[in-house]
TrEMBL record:
One of its GO terms (molecular function) is acyl-CoA oxidase activity. Residues 18-133 form the Acyl-coenzyme A oxidase N-terminal domain. The lineage of its organism: Eukaryota, Viridiplantae, Streptophyta, Embryophyta, Tracheophyta. This is Acyl-coenzyme A oxidase. Residues 480-655 form the Acyl-CoA oxidase C-terminal domain.
Length: 664
């Protein structure tokens, strides 16, 4: 058997559910499915969007090619009159980090969220037509996580009615802003506002960086690229920049003034809007990152699952075929929880999008009551989903054995592009510590204030602290109420225990720092409650299609019981479960894996990923892995000639024992 074509045809026949209906469930609605299917095919069939050769290109060529793709995409958007939603899908399927990510996901949202009506009227039409290109310049060489610690200054000059933007030290150089090194004409620069020698907090300012006619940096601005990043191709299509400001003057009306204003006289006016709204763009992007985690994880899982069905090792009898590696229980116990996680993250991402839309509408009406909850949810779920996705992609590489390490597997570039998501938009530990602040506050108020939203389960604090799990058989774990209650009890007990230990410290901040590792674990437990509960809520909805709901239920139990198994130390230490009950959960997990097994290929087909998006020989839809790997090896430019450069100069003299007289 040369290729794996026959294996995947057989695998697809085993499916016990309607794959087309599952595609709709994954996409969210029939309309969403049809839209994304159309755009995915548009990209896959356009040779300009080819990306298989990306890891072989040098930086300059890679970057130029990326600019070409963006220009071509923009032309398509105009020619085909694509909506904003379609344009965002186009960018997703082109699958190449570029300056437009910053333009559409940070620059424009920052103006929308933090600008006044007048500022929005001026800047948004220009940005939406790409007549100005903007980036988000917050992080500095010496300061990233601690936004209040930024050093760049914006000093008001009442003489000229301008702000003077300045980088007083080397460490205040802006460092990382994407799109900035070579492309953006403007940036939202976060800087310390100084009025009459007084510091008034960090604010955002629209600063022009380049001349719109000839693209040269404006006087007082030093700008460049920060250098090559992890992996070939990957995030190197993005021009992450360094900027140094030397007393750059901008008009007063270019400070984003929804949250606070500076008058013509240089007076600071604090409105009723909470200062945290200055961080609103990050909340928006964190929510987007959660919604996108399932896309990245599902790609890796699709590759690893298809390849695991094609790949055979051991067990051949009488010259018959070896065993498909997907049939090994160990392979299943590593792969199927990731498959289930992709679905879990998809549904929690959908919910978070809804939550964000709701908060945004409230903020527009000056209702800020749900902001702390939205911040905690976006920060915590960003941390949970990106960490699990980054680890999951690496696990998928290992699940593909040696071939997973080949660039042509598609996994190395996916990993290299994805991992910074654990760091950007808030380091994942720093984000979990934000959740911890929210949880500690919630727990400390339990006696007199009813927790709401995602912490509402803590209203039952007494029951969750005192009652124990009633499961007696593996079968009894197949009950969503039982599973959710176990997660809620473990989370409540961990949060309350942290609260009790914190109360022993005289200085709460000192206590928080001392217990921060435990607080991060309690925050993770709370975020897992959210993911598990939102999966259950999804299952309570009507989900059409033969067998679709049943398979999603199986995936729910795989996700939840796998987490329970992985974190059984917490469940046991908090006393909610007995070792016997934890062991029964693990027994049930093995049974669930055998229910996933015949459906595995159909479940990854349901992601509807094109071969273009996967860009992976191992994950090809047709499973024709070996002939294509062989073909790709000989198509590699390194194999253009049998004698590589340097062989005659450095190897032959060694073979001939003539190295001493060779010119090196
Ligand atoms: C080939 C494969 C392709 C796969 C794709 C690969 C990857 C892409 C993956 C996903 C992409 C998807 C979409 C993204 C789209 C576009 C974006 C493109 C690229 C992104 C590039 C990255 C950009 C950046 O990184 S921008 C910089 C981000 N920086 C940070 O996040 C800094 C983090 N730090 C902070 O947020 C704050 O400093 C802090 C840690 C929160 C602390 O702030 P501080 O003011 O000191 O506050 P505290 O004193 O701690 O708290 C005061 C009070 O305020 C509350 N608070 C804090 N923050 C918020 C908030 N945002 N909203 C509301 N409230 C907030 C806090 O809880 C506290 O409340 P309390 O007083 O009640 O306790
Ligand atoms: C690919 C990429 C693109 C980016 N794009 C942009 C952009 O467009 N615009 C922009 O402004 N920025 C951008 N950034 C910067 C990014 O937002 C920061 O790197 C990120 O916020 C983390 O900050 P840091 O680098 O200062 O990490 P640090 O805070 O220095 O983290 C270092 C370590 O310290 C730990 N740590 C820090 N603080 C605490 C604490 N309080 N308690 C416990 N542990 C702590 C962290 O967990 C981490 O382990 C980008 C970064 C990357 C990697």
């Amino acid at each position: 058997m040369e290729g794996g074509v026959d294996y995947l045809i057989d695998e697809r026949k085993k499916a016990q559910f309607d794959v087309e209906a599952m595609k709709v469930a994954w996409a969210g609605s029939r309309q969403a499915f049809e839209l994304s299917d159309r755009i995915a095919k548009l990209v896959a069939n356009d040779p300009i969007f080819e990306k298989f050769s990306r890891p072989m290109l040098g930086r300059k060529e890679l970057f130029k090619n990326s600019l070409r793709k963006v220009a071509h995409a923009w032309k398509l958007i105009i020619d085909l009159r694509l909506s904003e939603e379609e344009a965002k899908l186009l960018r997703h399927y082109i699958d190449e980090p570029a300056y437009t990510d910053l333009q559409w996901e940070m620059f424009i949202p920052a103006i929308e969220g933090q600008g006044t009506e007048e500022q929005k009227r001026k800047w948004l039409p220009l940005a939406r037509k790409m007549q100005v290109i903007g980036s988000y310049a917050q992080t500095e060489l010496g300061h990233g996580s601690n936004v209040q610690g930024l050093e760049t200054t914006a000093t008001f000059d009442p003489q000229t009615d301008e702000f003077v933007i300045h980088s007083p030290t080397l460490t205040s150089s802006k460092w990382w802003p994407g799109g900035t090194a070579k492309v953006s004409t403007h940036a939202i620069v976060y800087a310390r506002l100084i009025l009459d020698g007084q510091f008034h907090g960090v604010h955002g300012f629209i600063v022009q960086l380049r001349n719109l006619e000839n693209h040269t940096p404006l006087p007082g601005i030093t700008v460049g690229d920060i250098g090559m990043k992890f992996g070939n191709g990957a995030y190197n299509t993005m021009d992450n920049g360094v900027i140094r400001f030397n007393h750059v003057h901008i008009p007063r009306n270019q400070m984003l003034m929804r949250v606070s204003q500076v008058t013509r006289e240089g007076k600071f006016v604090q409105s009723d809007v909470p200062r945290q709204l200055l961080y609103g763009t990050m909340v928006y992007v964190r929510q987007k990152i959660v919604a996108d985690a399932s896309k990245a994880l599902s790609r890796a899982v699709c590759i690893a699952t298809r390849y695991s069905a094609v790949r055979r090792q051991f067990g051949s009898r009488n010259g018959g075929p070896e065993i498909q590696v997907i049939d090994y229980k160990t392979q299943q116990s590593r792969l199927f929880p990731l498959l289930a996680s992709a679905y879990a993250f998809r549904f929690v991402g959908e919910w978070l999008k809804w939550l964000y839309t709701d908060v945004k509408q409230r903020l527009e009406a000056n209702d800020f009551s749900t902001l702390p909850e939205a911040h905690a949810c976006t920060a915590g779920l960003k941390s949970l989903t990106t960490s699990a996705t980054a680890d999951g992609i690496e696990e998928c590489r290992k699940l593909c054995g040696g071939h997973g390490y080949l660039v042509s597997s598609g996994i190395p570039e996916l990993f290299a592009t994805y991992v910074p998501a654990c760091t950007f938009e808030g380091d994942n530990v720093v984000m979990m510590l934000q959740v911890a602040r929210f949880l500690v506050k919630t727990v400390s108020e339990l006696g007199y204030k009813q927790p709401v939203g995602t912490t509402a389960y803590m209203r039952r604090v007494t029951a969750l602290m005192q009652s124990n799990c009633a499961v007696r058989t593996a079968e009894e774990w197949l009950n969503p109420g039982v599973v959710v209650e176990a997660f809620e009890a473990r989370s409540t007990r961990m949060a309350v225990a942290c609260g009790q230990r914190l109360a022993k410290f005289e200085n709460p901040e000192e206590g928080f720092a001392e217990l921060s590792a435990d607080l991060v674990e309690a925050s993770l437990a709370h975020c897992q409650v959210i993911v598990v509960s939102k999966f259950v809520e999804k299952l309570q909805q009507e989900i059409p299609g033969k067998g679709v709901k049943r398979l999603l239920e199986v995936l729910f139990y795989v996700y939840a019981l796998f987490l329970l198994h992985k974190h059984q130390g917490d469940f046991l230490a908090t006393g909610y479960l007995t070792p016997k009950q934890a062991s029964l959960a693990n027994d049930q997990l093995r049974i669930l894996y055998s229910k996933v097994r015949p459906n595995a290929i159909a479940l990854v087909d349901s992601f509807n990923h094109t071969d273009h998006l996967l860009s992976s020989i191992l994950g090809r839809y047709d499973g024709n892995v070996y002939p294509k790997l062989y073909e790709a090896a000989f198509n590699d430019p390194f194999n253009d000639s049998d004698i590589a450069d340097g062989i005659h100069q450095y190897v032959q003299p060694m073979l001939r024992q003539e190295l001493h007289s060779a010119k090196l």
